[in-house]
Amino acid sequence: METPNGTVVVIEDDHHISDLVAMYLRRDGFRVLQSDDGESGLDHIEREQPRLVIIDIGLAGEIDGFEVCRRLRKTGEIPVIILSARDEEFDRILGLELGADDYVTKPFSARELLARIHAILRRSSVSAPSLSPAIHAVGLVEVDTARREVRTPAGSVALTTREFDLLAYLATNLGIALSRRQLLDGVWGEGWYGDERTVDVHVRQLRKKLGDDLPLITVWGVGYRLG
Ligand code: CA
């Protein structure tokens, strides 16, 4: 079977939703592996190194969607979309903090989900090459866009794909105050429709991980500036 778009792992214990998502993805040229619990989902991910993972938050068993996300973030850079029946601020923020790239609330349309998937894949495939490879020194932090590495005096720091892209974008616009909208357009891609507070969540994560080594300034009434 032709699967030009690569492999997606879907972890969802509602078989109706899982089958529906899988059907649309296959029709769209993806190879799809379905799991109905976190353990087997993680197995699939480890074996197949998919291009994207779609995770339901509420999973039966020991490992819920948040935990899958947490473990994924320790090991790599695979983009994650969280599915949730709960449209609660807390879940959304927690999901994004754990490194999810997007968050879709049930019920969702197949079209909406596919649009988000393509937006994320477009980003993760173009983001690295579109930045001219460079090492930006910002405060005590080195942002290496060729190797996609971030180094501090204490060693290299693991960032999620989105956190790295945000930091790299700020670093290439050093000293310029950028609005949340500009950051969303530049990092999440134009046409990304979501909450501007998504930027704040990622900024908070960058500050948490890089601390005082990173001169990431809040510009009141505008947004953020690096350096
Ligand atoms: Ca569920």
Write the layout of secondary structure elements.
Layout: E1 7-11, H1 15-27, E2 31-35, H2 38-48, E3 52-56, H3 65-75, E4 80-84, H4 89-97, E5 102-105, H5 110-130, E6 135-138, E7 141-144, E8 149-152, E9 155-156, H6 161-172, E10 178-179, H7 180-188, H8 197-210, E11 216-219, E12 223-226
Parallel strand pairs: 1-2, 1-3, 3-4, 4-5
Antiparallel strand pairs: 6-7, 7-8, 8-9, 10-12, 11-12
The chain binds calcium ion (CA).
Structure report:
The protein is of the alpha/beta class and 227 residues long. It folds into two domains: 7-124, Rossmann fold (3-Layer(aba) Sandwich); 135-226, Winged helix-like DNA-binding domain superfamily/Winged helix DNA-binding domain (Arc Repressor Mutant, subunit A, Orthogonal Bundle). Helices cover 44% and strands 21% of the residues. The chain is built from eight helices and twelve strands. The protein has helices at 15-27, 38-48, 65-75, 89-97, 110-130, 161-172, 180-188, 197-210; strands spanning 7-11, 31-35, 52-56, 80-84, 102-105, 135-138, 141-144, 149-152, 155-156, 178-179, 216-219, 223-226. The strands form three sheets. A five-stranded parallel sheet has the order 2-1-3-4-5, sandwiched between helices. A four-stranded antiparallel sheet has the order 6-7-8-9, with helices on one face. A three-stranded antiparallel sheet has the order 10-12-11. Helix 1 links the parallel strand 1 and strand 2 (31-35). Helix 6 packs across helix 8 (197-210). The longest helix is centred in the middle third of the chain and has 21 residues, at 110-130. The radius of gyration is 18 Å and the shape is globular. The N and C termini lie far apart (50 Å). The relative contact order is 0.10. Residues 126-130 have low confidence and may be disordered. The chain binds calcium ion. Calcium ion is lined by residues 13-14, 56, 58-59.
